Amino acid sequence: MEFRMLGSSGIKISPIIMGTWQAGKDMWVGIDDAESTRAIKAAYEAGITTFDTAEVYGNGHSEKIVGNALQDVRDKVVIATKVFSNHLKYRQVMDACHRSLKNLDTDYIDLYQIHWPPGSFGGEKVPLEETMGALTDLKAQGKIRAVGVSNFSGSQVEDAATYGRIDSLQPPYSLFWRKVETDAMPYCLDNDITLLAYSSMAQGLLTGKFGPDHAFAKGDHRFRNKLFQPENYERVQTALEKLRPLASANNITLGQLALAWIVSRPGVCAIAGARNAEQATQNAAAGNVRLSEEDLAAIDDIGKTVTDPLDDDPLMWKW
């Protein structure tokens, strides 16, 4: 796996990043702590060195699982976490960071991100200058190494960057969800801000495991994803059938095809979640896949049959 630089931070990250929302359990079903731990360890053994979590994932539970799983290799991995939109005042950011440090059982966080823009989910619209001031101070204290933002629009990223160095943007980005390409991506490429694409397999859709008649178990948040809504789901299934021969021709899975496409994009790394060790190992293998220019163009065209008819709303869920 060829490592990449996180913005201009000097931090090297793996092109495939393990996402650990599911390890927090909240809004997911059938998650087992021991299995989550094995998945994280398997990801590391397979070459993934970068792990993404957040304080809001199970109210710190995901951070605790990540910290425990990586304790023995802490100096060899990059850990990213996030402060939620209800903790963006100066003192709240400081306190949230210290809680995350404790949960992760570490004395520094490699990448600390603002999870959602101020005012999201009914939170107070704290001035970005105040939040960025806290993050800049944490960086000066050595408690965090780099600052990132998540779910920000291009104009919001640009605004945040006036108050301090931003090294990453974490947007929803996959073959089936490409809003960032026409919004924040050009600014990020011009300013050496790395894109950390989350939902890079469209919350499992791009693995091909969800058939035309799939129904989610009670408590699974994915039923709110717009791509699973009837008006879009039929196009998704048609696109998946067209992608299968390309995956077969490259001797890879559909999920690996989707991840390989994402990491082929300039300045983009892919965050991929995994429930178990097998999934984590498969995801890691995608970092070694090299698709031909012809295949990349074909995949791109197929993806647009899903994305072109979508409305302009940048939110991927109907909350």
Structural description of this entry:
The structure is a single chain. The chain has 319 residues and is α/β, with parallel strands linked by helices. It has a single domain, classed as Alpha-Beta Barrel (TIM Barrel). It is built from ten helices and ten strands. The strands form two sheets. The protein has an eight-stranded parallel barrel with strand order 3-4-5-6-7-8-9-10, surrounded by five helices. The protein has a two-stranded antiparallel ribbon with strand order 1-2. Strand 8, helix 6 and strand 9 form a beta-alpha-beta unit. The longest helix is centred in the C-terminal third of the chain and has 20 residues. The radius of gyration is 18 Å and the shape is globular. The two termini are 37 Å apart.
Distance between the first and last residues' Cα: 37 Å
Oligomerization state of this entry? single chain
The main pleated sheet reads as: 8 strands, parallel, barrel
Number of domains as seen in the coordinates: 1
Radius of gyration from the alpha-carbon trace, in angstroms: 18 Å
Output the number of helix runs.
10
Q: What's the pLDDT, averaged over the residues?
A: 95
**What helical percentage do the residues reach?**
25-40%
User: So, CATH architecture?
Assistant: Alpha-Beta Barrel
Structural class computed from helices and strand pairing? alpha/beta
Quantity of strands, as a count: 10
CATH class: Alpha Beta
